[in-house]
């Protein structure tokens, strides 16, 4: 997967709401291999959006940076393949 600069968020903790600092991002559900199709979500001018796959409610928090999320552990970063 190429780096695109779009933050990816996951809900391994199973929380009902994740606060994010971006209005455009990808939801992956849980971390691989238990992820759902990686879906692009765009809040537009709204402050909340629900993922149609996992029903996680994402809420925009302007105090967070674009790649930050609460609770901790909700930001997913692909790890490089082992050599």
Automatic annotation (TrEMBL):
**What is the species listed in this Swiss-Prot or TrEMBL entry?**
Aquabacter spiritensis
A Pfam family cross-referenced in the UniProt record is zf-CHCC
Positions of the Zinc finger CHCC-type domain: 23-58
Gene3D superfamilies referenced in this protein's UniProt entry, alphabetically: q5lls5 like domains (2.60.260.40)
Organism taxonomic ancestry: Bacteria, Pseudomonadati, Pseudomonadota, Alphaproteobacteria, Hyphomicrobiales
In Swiss-Prot or TrEMBL terms, this protein is called Putative Zn-finger protein
């Amino acid at each position: 997967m190429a780096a695109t600069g779009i933050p990816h968020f996951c809900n391994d903790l199973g929380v009902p709401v994740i606060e994010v600092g971006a209005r455009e991002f990808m939801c992956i559900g849980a971390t691989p291999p238990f992820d759902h199709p990686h879906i692009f979500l765009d809040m537009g001018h709204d402050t909340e959006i629900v993922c149609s796959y996992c029903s996680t409610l994402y809420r925009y928090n302007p105090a967070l940076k674009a790649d930050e999320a609460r609770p901790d552990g909700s930001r997913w970063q692909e790890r490089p393949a082992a050599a």
